Amino acid sequence: MFRAVLLQIVATLAVAVIAGILAGKHGAVSAALGGAAIVLPNSLFALRLYVESRKPGGASPAVFFIGEFMKVAATIALLAAAASLYRDLHWLALIAGLVVALKANLLALLSKKF
After folding, report:
1. Could you say which of 47, 60, 100, 108 has the lowest number of CB atoms within 10 Å?
2. In this structure, what DSSP letter does residue 114 have?
3. What is the pTM of this model?
4. Calpha distance 67→17 (Å, rounded)
């Protein structure tokens, strides 16, 4: 699971570099913020599942569902914070970072290496 998060980080950095080339510094920051809105909650969710799975009896389904709810809520909060706090936000770059980070997770699940 941590490899999937690492792949999301690499994908976010790649889209931030591309957005920086196409839209400048603010585009790069916006793409990084979009990716971070996915990567940060996912990494905390992965850590929580890892810790819970190490306990006797493993992780319960409730831990998964509560963690998933918290992940979605944190993603929404981070996107709202980016939209309200970063005045030079490039929406297209933010959405590109968001989508690429989400799709990197899908590629990690489909890959046999992960």
Report:
1. 60
2. -
3. 0.87
4. 31
